[in-house]
Amino acid sequence: CDAKLTGIVRDFRAYSRGDGHPDFETFQGSGLKGIVERELGPDQKPVYAHQGGTEHTTGPDEFNQWYRDVQGVNMPLEFTITPTVDANGIATYDNRAFFPIDGEGFGNEGRQHNYHFTFELHMKFAYKGGEVFSFTGDDDLWVFINNRLAIDLGGLHGPQTDELDLDEKASELGITPGQEYALDFFHAERHTSESNFVVQSSLAFTNCEPIFVD
Q1: Which of 62, 124, 134, 143 could form a disulfide with 207 if both were Cys (CB 3.0 to 4.6 A apart)?
Q2: Which SMART domains match (predicted)?
Q3: How many angstroms separate the Cα of 1 from the Cα of each of 39, 46, 200, 204, 209?
């Protein structure tokens, strides 16, 4: 089957409007690692790693709303990534203007685009050996493989890139060729005025239907 790269985009209101979320359109910087714990939580969500705020976040209560449906705070919408696959089996999704919910959810709030949202995607893949996965974009991005943090591009920042060689990280991630594992992907776009989202992967995803985690 063709795996469906379908996840949940959650729209937020910008805090600059007074009634928005304090983590959106508030902070600036060049990124911050360690915002989340290195192990995924039992509910398949990132675990905030601090008791209070950081240079890029308000605190645990606010962060815990990023990837959970909270009525009046965010609005969930399904979104599907459609990559292109080359002759070598490398799948690429390259979007230098990643605004998947323009005019939807709470709307663009008077801006050209809807800049304030998170994106959550859960996949399964068969690890054969030799696979790579890379991401370039802004803002926050965390990728977990086998419930362990594999890519940490957290915080507010311009486009940043990290490339994961699964063979090099196999021991750290606890993965063995010939087995199936979960890949959990958490992204946030939190500030104007650009949104880059580029994924390249040679992973063979195996879930025929989208995976949604409440």
Answers
A1: 124
A2: PA14
A3: 30, 29, 20, 11, 9
